[in-house]
Design brief:
The strands form three sheets. Strands 3-2-1-11-12-13 form a six-stranded parallel sheet, with helices on both faces. It has a five-stranded parallel sheet with strand order 5-4-6-7-10, with helices on both faces. β8 and β9 form a beta hairpin. It is an alpha/beta fold. It has nine helices and 13 strands. Helices cover about 35% and strands about 20% of the residues. α3 runs parallel beside α4. The two termini are about 20 Å apart. It is globular. The chain binds magnesium ion (MG). Magnesium ion binds next to loops.
């Protein structure tokens, strides 16, 4: 149980459902981040959303009046692209939107329909042709990666099915097994630990999803707070077990700055 957030030096926020509902900041988000920064706390942002690249998310945060830069934002698309490049995977068949393609390009990973690896993310322009191309490569033995296994993305005015819904279908169809590179995977955790300056004992992670955010925080040795109103209900959070159980539950972001 967490009595006060005052002792924490580092605050890590999930974006969708926690800091914003895509097109609208959650109540108090801007004031909370700004106050934490003014009081000398380190503030980082995490997301499995790949609609935008890391620099795209920085811009989106700034458009909302939240001051940050790329060194304080970690995304599944960035972690995935860096992982592929670091493992000598020079080309990949990618299902995803512009943000993901930008990260692959920046990491020097080419997109090809003859690649020996498939990277699955959320794609609002998904077609049968793309599924068939990915399945064909997987059937031939291509490695199977996914940016996450979430089932829904909350994009404000629209709630869209996310990459997670396709993973079991492609696995059943091809026998390939997907390796997740976004939250809460080891790849994401290691990229975070390597690139962000983190002191686990002084860090709290705030997220709306026990299965991705809270598990990631627990695996990193952080304290965790579940923000209500997003993916996980209060009952689910209270009933959660093991790494999925948050240290505390908050109803609004302003609770984080009480006494800070
Ligand atoms: Mg979220």
């Amino acid at each position: 149980l967490i009595v006060s957030f005052k002792p924490f030096k580092t605050f890590i926020f999930d974006l969708d459902g926690t800091l914003w509902r895509w097109s609208k900041l959650n109540e108090g988000a801007k004031e909370v981040v700004s106050k934490l920064q003014k009081r000398g706390r380190f503030v980082y942002f995490l997301t499995n959303n790949t609609v935008l690249s890391r620099s795209g998310f920085v811009q989106k945060l700034r458009d909302f009046g939240i001051n940050t830069d790329e060194r304080h934002v970690m995304t599944a698309g960035y972690a995935a692209a860096r992982f592929l490049a670091a493992n000598g995977i020079e080309d990949v068949y990618a299902i995803g939107e512009r943000g993901l393609l930008e990260e692959l390009d920046k990491a020097g990973v080419k997109v090809s329909d003859r690649a020996k690896a498939v990277l699955l993310s959320t794609d609002r322009n998904l077609t049968f042709g793309k599924i068939a191309a990915a399945a064909t490569l997987l059937k031939k033995g291509a490695r199977f990666f996914a940016t996450g296994k979430g089932l829904w993305w909350d994009l404000g005015s629209e709630k869209v099915p996310a990459e997670g819904f396709l993973i079991p279908s492609l696995e059943n169809l091809t026998g390939a097994k997907a390796e997740v590179l976004g939250k809460p995977s080891d790849v994401f955790r290691q990229t975070m630990v390597k690139e962000l300056s983190l002191y686990p004992e002084d860090t709290i992670l705030i997220g709306d999803d026990t299965k991705s955010d809270i598990v990631l925080g627990a695996r990193c040795g952080f304290k965790t707070a579940l923000m209500l109103g997003g993916e996980t209900t209060e009952k689910e959070a209270r009933d959660a077990k093991g790494a999925e159980k948050p240290d505390t539950i908050i109803r609004e972001l302003k609770e984080l700055i009480a006494g800070v």
